[in-house]
Structure formats: structure tokens, C-alpha cells
Design brief:
With about 550 residues, the chain is mostly helical. The protein has helices spanning about 1-45, 55-65, 85-90, 90-105, 110-125, 130-140, 140-150, 155-160, 170-190, 190-210, 215-230, 240-255, 260, 270-290, 300-315, 325-330, 350-355, 360-375, 380-395, 400-410, 410-440, 445-450, 455-480, 485-500, 515-520, 535-545, and strands at about 505, 525.
Length: about 550
């Protein structure tokens, strides 16, 4: 008896250590592959930033490190007014980058420019940690492995997270994914206090994302949207109210203290109007569900929801939806003639097929199967709806496929789980066949091999081939991703420095504002912030005659 117990304990420990090793190896492999694919551009073009927005983000980070605070005035931009970077640019992007730089320099000497060039390649792949943990929590280790590899090597996620692309996405998306993971885990917890703790951390990650990138709005509104749907179908529990309602509250609180959020009136923005309405509705729903069970809790909840909306709209308290966000939500909307949004390449319609390419095969199969069965599990409803919304946004505007990648990529995990279940079922069947035929003295080899034909085919066609093909396309695209300025522009900057005085105002199209500011230290009328549409229109009139 003692020996049997010892053997079982030994087997259990062996399995536990194997699982830990599998997790560590899977995460390391995913991360290292992700970093490698993202640093490829520097082997071709050298250590340079891409010639656009990363230039201004480098300047602000440099200023923060040198002065201990963010700049409050940029005299080189938007002449004659300038602007306050602290109120316009994403504050936490620079604080996080500066703190990480300080940490790295204690380990290895590196200049700031090289650091910010490499940071996207090393930070963006960190998304594999919450992504792997989420899928492992839901469907197991093999689904987690294939999901991590598929997402981290997809061009949808890589397109704006390569070396040199020092933008907001590489910081915000790992935090958004961590928030999503903790929210799902909170919804699945049995103990209410654990849900409160997990939701709190989810809210912190969401608030950090809000101070880093405007893409935080995907989850900021998806959480209350799901809570609204659960209440509508009478499936909302107190745990759901906490899990989905608490994280947006953290953003509302952060919007008071973070200058870039308060200056944009996030607290009373159009998207926050919906958040406030759902929060009030969920409180009323919970109270009536617990203390006044004779009344359908949806009725007072609906009343509270409508009351908040009417208050915001009738009093004019809310801030209208920005034109750029309007284009994301309603891609077919007709903006006024000459609107600056129409001139920005990043605001052009996206292409889910172009960015996800072969990876759409397992994503589509997985999400379709999950949608078919999603009513069995509330977290699956949440995942499917959030994935569909993220893909819709990725199709609406060309800069958002990276945001959709981790959420749509969960379809890979689901289809992998189904294949793993099929493989286990066939393995059990093979064991029974082997025992039966061995008693009869017959060979079972052919029957066993035929039993595994379908799982093998599915693994090859739905997982290995699409992920490998997608990764190869990302490899080719990353190798030729341009960094730095062309030689002609370097000559332009040199000429400006040698033939104009400090303070000279250079008239150019807004695309080149950052280039002239950072490349030649000269004053410009407009730049990539596109914060003054009328100024840009005047420049257009001047150039077009």
C-alpha cells in the first residue's frame, strides 16, 4: 500500500515538473521567436527609428530623462501657438519607457536612442505571458502554445511592433491582454473576494493602457457592453458586475489624474457615457435581484440606464465622439470635405485578410466553433463578441490589426483544444482496438495508424501549415521594413541647418513636420499630431494655389 502511494506521488510530481518545464519552454520559445522576427529590420537598415511618430516620442522620452518631467511646451511645432505635449501625448508611454531605460542601464550601458529603437522588439512579445496563461486557464497547454506562437509571429501583431517603431502599441497591448486575462479569470472564480482582487488588478492594467494608447477603448467599452448583454438575458451575477464593472471605474479615476486623459475629457466622453449608464444599471440590477426578487431586475436597470443617457445628452454634459474614433466605429461615415482624418494614411480602411493572411484559417474555424457552442459558457460569449469587435475595428482602420491579434487569436486556442480532444479520443479508441486484436493474435498497427489519420491531418492543415506560412510572410516583411531617413532627406536636413537660422519657420505638409523638427531643429506649421485641421487646410490651399 505504501509503495503504491509513493509511486502515485512520484508520478504526480513528475507530471507537475513536466508541466512547469513545458510552460517555461513554451513561453521562452514564443518570446525569443517574437523578438528575433522584430529585430530583423536593424540588420538591413541599422539602428534607426522609423521616419514618423517615433521621432517625437523619442524626443519626449529624452526630455523626461534630462529634466525629470514631461515638456509642457513644444515651440518647434504648430507655429505660432506651439502645444503642450503633456496634455496631448500619452503620458504613461514616456514614464514607462524612461523607467525601463533606467533599469536596463543599471545592467548594461546603452544610449537612449538605441534603447527606444529596440524597445518595441523586446516589449511587444511580452504579450505571450497573459495570452498563454489565459488560454491555458481555459483550454490547456497545447492550445496555449499554438496560440502564443501564432499571435506573436503574425503580421497583424508585428506590423506596428518591430524594432524602430517606438509607438504606443508595443506597451499598451500586453497590458490590455493582461487586463482581459484577469477579467476572464475573475469571472470564473468561485470566491467573490478573489474576483474583487483580480478585477482590481485588471483595472490597473486597463488604466495603464489608457494612459498609453487610445486603443484602450476596445476593452473600456467591451467590459460594460458584456455586462449589459448579461443583464439583458438575466445571466448577470454579482461576480460579473464586479469583474466587468470594476476595471472601467479605474479608468474613470485615472482620467482625473492623467493629463492626457483629463484634457480629452475622457471622464465625460461619448464612450464614457455608455460606461456610466451601464454602471448605474448594474447597481440597480444587483440590488433588485437580491432584495426585490418579485420585480424583474431588468426593469429598474433599464430605467437607470436610460436616465443616465438622457442626463448626459439633454444637459450636453458629454464630449462628442472624436472624428477619428467616429471613423473607427462607423467606417462608412462621410466626414466634412477637407477633414484632416481623410488625409492620414493610418486612418484608411484596414484589411483583416491582408494582415492575418493564413492565420485566418485557424482563427475563423476556432471562433466559428466557439460561437456555435458559446452559450454553454459566459466567458466564451465574452471572448467571441470581443474578438468580433476587434476584427471589425481592424477592418475599419488600418492601424488596428495589432489590437485585434491577441483577441482574435484566441480562436487558434479553441480549435487546438478541439483537435487535442479528438486526438485523446482516438488514442483511447486505439488502445481498445490494440487489446482486442492482440487477444485474437492479429496485428493492430494498420488500424491504429488509420485511427490517427484525421487528427494528424487537422493538426497539419489547421495549425502547423497556417502558422508556419504566416510566420514566414512576417519574416519576409520584417526584413524589408524601412527604418531611418533616405539619403535625400538627410541632405535636406543638412541644408536647412547650414542655410537657415534657429527659429526659422519651414512650411511643409504635415507628414514632414516631425522630420524637420527632429532632423533639423527648425520650426514647423504642422506635424503628425494633426491637432489643428484649419491650419492644415491653409497649408493645403497654399501648396495647391
Amino acid at each position: 500500500m505504501w509503495s503504491n502511494s509513493s509511486r502515485k506521488l512520484g508520478d504526480l510530481m513528475e507530471k507537475k515538473y513536466f508541466n512547469i518545464i513545458f510552460d517555461v519552454v513554451s513561453l521562452l520559445a514564443s518570446y525569443i521567436i517574437g523578438v528575433y522576427l522584430r529585430i530583423l529590420p536593424i540588420f538591413t537598415y541599422g539602428v534607426h527609428l522609423t521616419a514618423d511618430d517615433p521621432l517625437i516620442h523619442y524626443w519626449v522620452t529624452k526630455y523626461l530623462l534630462e529634466n525629470g518631467r514631461l515638456p509642457t511646451y513644444n515651440a518647434l511645432a504648430w507655429h505660432p501657438w506651439g502645444y503642450d505635449p503633456e496634455k496631448v501625448l500619452p503620458d504613461l508611454h514616456y514614464y514607462i519607457s524612461a523607467y525601463l531605460y533606467k533599469i536596463v542601464t543599471t545592467i548594461h550601458s546603452i544610449d537612449l536612442y538605441t534603447f527606444v529603437v529596440l524597445m518595441p522588439a523586446f516589449f511587444a512579445p511580452l504579450v505571450v505571458i497573459p495570452l498563454y496563461l489565459l488560454v491555458k486557464e481555459l483550454w490547456g497547454r497545447w492550445p496555449a502554445f499554438f496560440t502564443s506562437i501564432g499571435v506573436i509571429t503574425s503580421w497583424a501583431y508585428m506590423s506596428r511592433t518591430t524594432a524602430g517603431f517606438f509607438r504606443h502599441e508595443q506597451i499598451a497591448i500586453p497590458f490590455l491582454t493582461a487586463s482581459f486575462y484577469l477579467t476572464v479569470k475573475s469571472m470564473r472564480e468561485r470566491d467573490l473576494w478573489k474576483s474583487v482582487v483580480l478585477s482590481g488588478f485588471s483595472g490597473l492594467f486597463l488604466a495603464v493602457s489608457a494612459g498609453t494608447w487610445a486603443g484602450f477603448r476596445l476593452l473600456y467599452d467591451a467590459y460594460p457592453l458584456m455586462l449589459f448583454i448579461f443583464m439583458l438575458f438575466r445571466r448577470a451575477e454579482l461576480k460579473d458586475v464586479i469583474s466587468l464593472g470594476l476595471p472601467p471605474v479605474y479608468v474613470l479615476l485615472a482620467s482625473i489624474s492623467i493629463p492626457s486623459l483629463s484634457s480629452r475629457s475622457v471622464l465625460i466622453s461619448m464612450e464614457s457615457t455608455f460606461v456610466w449608464a451601464v454602471l448605474v444599471a448594474s447597481i440597480l440590477y444587483t440590488i433588485f435581484q437580491k432584495y426585490r426578487k418579485e420585480i424583474d431586475a431588468r426593469i429598474p436597470a433599464a430605467g437607470g440606464f436610460l436616465a443616465v443617457l438622457l442626463f448626459f445628452f439633454l444637459t450636453g454634459t458629454y464630449a462628442p465622439l472624436a472624428e477619428r474614433l467616429l471613423r473607427v466605429v462607423f467606417p462608412g461615415v462621410k466626414l466634412p470635405p477637407g477633414n484632416v482624418v481623410e488625409t492620414v494614411a493610418e486612418h484608411a480602411p484596414g484589411s483583416v485578410l491582408g494582415y492575418f493572411n493564413y492565420l485566418l484559417i485557424p482563427v475563423a474555424f476556432g471562433l466559428s466553433l466557439m460561437a456555435w457552442e458559446m452559450w454553454r459558457d459566459k466567458t466564451h460569449i465574452f471572448i467571441v463578441i470581443n474578438a468580433i469587435i476587434s476584427l471589425y475595428f481592424a477592418e475599419s482602420i488600418t492601424r488596428l490589426p495589432p489590437l485585434a491579434a491577441p483577441f482574435a487569436g484566441l480562436g487558434i486556442g479553441y480549435i487546438t483544444m478541439k483537435i487535442v480532444e479528438l486526438t485523446k479520443s482516438r488514442a483511447e479508441s486505439a488502445r481498445r482496438i490494440s487489446k482486442l486484436l492482440s487477444r485474437k493474435g492479429k496485428s493492430s498497427r494498420r488500424r491504429i495508424l488509420s485511427n490517427f489519420m484525421l487528427p494528424t491531418l487537422l493538426i497539419a492543415l489547421l495549425l502547423i501549415a497556417p502558422i508556419f506560412a504566416s510566420a514566414y510572410l512576417s519574416y519576409e516583411a520584417s526584413r524589408t521594413y524601412p527604418l531611418g531617413f533616405e539619403e535625400g532627406w538627410e541632405k535636406v536636413f543638412s541644408w536647412l541647418k547650414n542655410n537657415t537660422k534657429n527659429g526659422t519657420v519651414v512650411v511643409s505638409w504635415w507628414d514632414y513636420g516631425y522630420w524637420i523638427q527632429l532632423g533639423a531643429s527648425r520650426v514647423t506649421l504642422a506635424d503628425g499630431l494633426t491637432i489643428n485641421s484649419s491650419q492644415i487646410r491653409e497649408i493645403a490651399y497654399a501648396f495647391s494655389g
